[in-house]
Amino acid sequence: MPLRTLRTGALSCGARQVENRLVVLLDYDKFEFIKLLLANRHTVVYCTLLGQAQDEAEKDAIRAKMQAFPEGRAILHALTFSHKTEGERKREMEKRLRKEIRGLREQGAVDEDTSMADRAPVELDGKAGQTARVVLDLESLAFQQEGHLMANKSCNLPEGSTRISHKGYEEVLVPAVRNVDDGDVLKKIADLPEWARPAFKGTDSLNRIQTKVHETALFHPDNMLVCAPTGAGKTNVALLTMLHEIGLHRREDGSFDLEAFKIVYLAPMKALVAEIVTNFSARLEAFGISVKEFTGDVQLNKQQLAEANVIIMTPEKFDVITRKGDARPFTRLVKLVIIDEIHLLHDSRGPVLETLIARTIRQIEATQELVRLVGLSATLPNYQDVAAVLRVDEKKGLFYFDNSYRPCPLEQQYIGITEKKALKRFQLMNEICYDKVVAQAGKNQVLVFVHSRKETAKTAKAIRTMAEENDTLGKFMVEDSASQEICREMAETVKSPDLKELLPFGFGIHHAGMARSDRELVESLFADGHIQVLCSTATLAWGVNLPAHTVIIKGTQIYNPEKGRWVELSSLDVMQMMGRAGRPQYDTSGTGIIITTYSELQYYLSLLNQQLPIESQMVQHLPDILNAEIVLGTVQNVREAVQWLGYTYLYVRMLRNPSLYNVPADEVADDPALEQRRADLIHTAATALFKANLIKYDRKSGNLQCTDLGRVASYFYVGYQSIAVFNDHLKPSVSDIELLRIFSLSGEFKYMVVREEEKMELHKLADRVPIPIKEGVEEPTAKVNVLLQAYISQLKLDGFALLADMVYITQSAGRLFRALYEIVLRRGWAALTLKCLNLCKMVDKRMWGSMIPLRQFKSIPEEVVKKLEKKDVVQWERFFDMSPQEIGELIRFPKMGKTIHKLIHQFPKLELAAHVQPITRNVLKLELTITPDFQWDDKVHGAAEMFQVLVEDVDQEVILHSELFILKGRYIEEEHVVSITIPMTEPVPPQYFVRVVSDRWIGSETVLPISFRHLILPEKFPPRTELLDLQPLPVSALRNPKFEAIYAKSLSSFNAIQTQVHNTLFNTNENTLVAAPTGSGKTICAEFALLRSLQEDPAGKIVYVAPNEAIVRERMEDWTDKFGALDGVRMAVLSGDAVADNKTLERCSIVLSTPEAWDMLSRRWRQRKQVQNVSLMIVDEVAPSPAPPGAQRARRETRDDV
């Protein structure tokens, strides 16, 4: 048949007729091909017509005809699509898939909860088996400006604001917003419940803000967000919410159940934590509440954490605690979480807050245990978004107060310097500073914030010099006044030469590098009004509450060692500094002045006038945050990860402002819930983690599983890029030189740069450090290496930026070396493990391993330590046998002999003894007896000392076993026995080594060789159990009519094996292994133990584990028939979803599972009570006999048929 005739027929007659004609034409054995032709008949016809068209006019006519019906339009679209670029085709395909899926959902074909990850694989870009997920570029999606991002295009200033242009700078004046008296009656403390009043001792009433929120804060459990200006009394709002929680645990006799709850208060800075602890400790003392600080500087052990009722910590510390599964006993008692300065979501530290909020809300939903969330924030424009992520009911818990609620109205002056040349710009800043200070001289005190210690004195001297030149010095200090006399007297007592020079003129300086006595003197003189101008660093804004009428922020750039460059001040710092302007008890208004560059003027105007929207910074940290959730077990697959992302502030902002987060408008229209976008973000982060070996990612099923490297990254707060570097470069034979180089390659130092002015000092330092550096000092890795060694060697640095870099490096060094140590320990590399552990201790103690261990005692004078180190002829071990007199004579300092002798015997030292017993030819049981041989002092050793117990092979190259031994002070006089199971190889090695190393004391190490010379191993093939010639046991031996009825239908007595094992399984609780041939009745043997458990412990849980789902299903059907009728017996099969399985285990008495599903559920056994309640575990097919693939397959098929 001619082709054109067939084409015409295809369009004119019905599908059935076309099919009949094709069958006749192509014969009956081509039916699949005929079906394919029919399905694509329009494509075949019109593509052929277009291909045979003679000119463009004929093609246009055919295209016009195709546009008239849907199939034709689809073909035209596909033809156009094929000419697009690869990227365009990819986007079009994704768009089409999303539309198709949405259509299916609307038809009810796909369930609403079905994840994108569970979609059937499609062919994408010609590669089969990939889902329609896209790997995004997270770096391009992240905001490079971080906390300095300004999403608003313009800033509307309050009425009365003026803008004035000067030579070299522009000035914007914003008048103070006056308080509006709304006629509200302040809440009297006497009107509060009587039990709550002691918290407000010395106060008559709450202020305006506290009065408005007290009803919700004190009497309702709703989540809250309170936005108010700095200094408006938000701390008392937090106190009211604490009192609500305390009141919930008030007994009838008026006492409080303090063990039933904990309160966590998250403060943004370590400097604020101590101040808050002091405040709340005094306020809550009457209730017996224990308030503790928990930061990087102040550590709490588990006992102290358990004793504390209110814990004040930084968000990072709370993140570290909640990342670890063993923190559940603590976190389940947390009933209130207060997040101070929640507008930090906009800052680079915002992702930590997002993570904590999402984790807490998901925990509430999973456990159904209420945790109240309270956010305290500065005034911000998009407060409703923050309220949404905190799950705040806007009608009940959302409170927003503008600047009119500031206790002392603030007049703002913004100065944007347009001068480009650095020297002129610096001079101009000093002149502006002088002008502003002189304007207040004699009337009000001025606080000038600068951003380096040296700059405090430079600025103060510059102002004084200009005042001398302009003859205005008398305005700052009246001649012969009492203040001048006091300042002159005090100047004689100070240690700082700069302060001594400035104090008589009424000027002061303040920074953390000054002596404590000088700082306290300056604070008291300024508070009493004797110092008129105080130049300070930001430490005064955070650590000390010392307000002034006028605050000047001179310059807004500070050096950030993490970025390796000068960056703008964070919003938190600026608001804290401006919060020091105005003293409510003395002033009717305050003045805040910011001197910045012209380009940054808009940002600070927006920030301080509540027009800077808070955005999410989570994208750039998404891989590390996702890894932490996977390790914690809260996210186990892509579907759960997509749901988890829906709890974050990132998701809220993507919905509100999709264009800012690079979400195309058509994507929002096609997918309003942004499920596909979230799936793409998760896929991208998971792919990055998978490439770095932090997780196992099954793209087809979407399952996510953590690895050892992932756990290390999460526990030690290390970025995935750093872990990837460690993984690539670590080898068993790494030397000290290479180990320090690997440390220097960490992703934490990727922005480290070497400046031209630093090279000379780095060269000098490189010559003085003990471990050689391969690279030249021009390389950033060499700089990191040099500064780390300089820190350990306690070398002095000159450059300010270099010192800041060293502080940043050493802050990260401890956890990075701990991460390295954990990685090599898990790999079993003995020599490298010891090197990493020693480096951890060297960084912590700031001393090298070659130095005398007595350096770790700070009470020994430096000159005495040096004398001891010079006596290198005396080995360290010999000091333990010397008397006080001998030590005194050795160092020629008799008085110190007794002190040093006492300290030597406080140095942790252990005596070891071991007993070995073979269990099998391949497994040994080692009983290690540890006897402490030192004197315990709580001031030196704390509550406990930790030791690493390592069992090494004969060559001391491989670690066969490792564990942590904790020695508590109260058990110092006792012997401690540690039981260890270790592998044994054949031929039997001559010996193993047990090494016990202190976790924090350099030089505290004991090694014990264990000889196997007289070790006798069991026989190679032990005899099988003899099958006894016993009378078959009747079913009546079960002694329970219900149990007997189960078997009576199928058998009258048990077989020989069942008879022999019956007593052990049915009458005892002994652990049992039954190894017998297939078909010998092992299942009934297991059922004996099951029936005993049901009879003896009805509340206990019974778990049956089989290697594959087919056996599990078979056993489920069998046992449902057998035991389903018994009272109280409910059975179910675990699904692999840990949350759902936990509920299944709670509901059922018998659960059946594959090893993978039970592994997923039981990993967090400490937190899951139902897992702890398991009374019987039956493991089927423990060691299945090997069979050829065909036999295994046949066995599977047989089971499937059954």
Name the descriptors.
1202 residues; alpha/beta; 7-stranded parallel β-sheet
Helix share bin? 40-55%
Number of helices: 49
- Spans of 5+ residues with little confidence (pLDDT < 50)? 1-13, 108-131, 1185-1202
Major β-sheet profile: 8 strands, mixed
Beginning-to-end CA distance, first to last residue: 53 Å
Strand content: 5-15%
Mean pLDDT comes to: 83
In total, the number of strands is 32
Q: Pairing-aware structural class of the strands and helices?
A: alpha/beta
Shape: globular
Work out the radius of gyration: 37 Å
Write out the strand line-up for the largest beta sheet, numbering strands in chain order: 3-4-12-19-16-13-15-14
Description:
- The strands form eight sheets. The protein has an eight-stranded mixed sheet, sandwiched between helices.
- The chain is an alpha/beta fold and 1202 residues long.
Short summary of the structure?
With 1202 residues, the protein is an alpha/beta fold. α34 crosses α35. The relative contact order is 0.05.
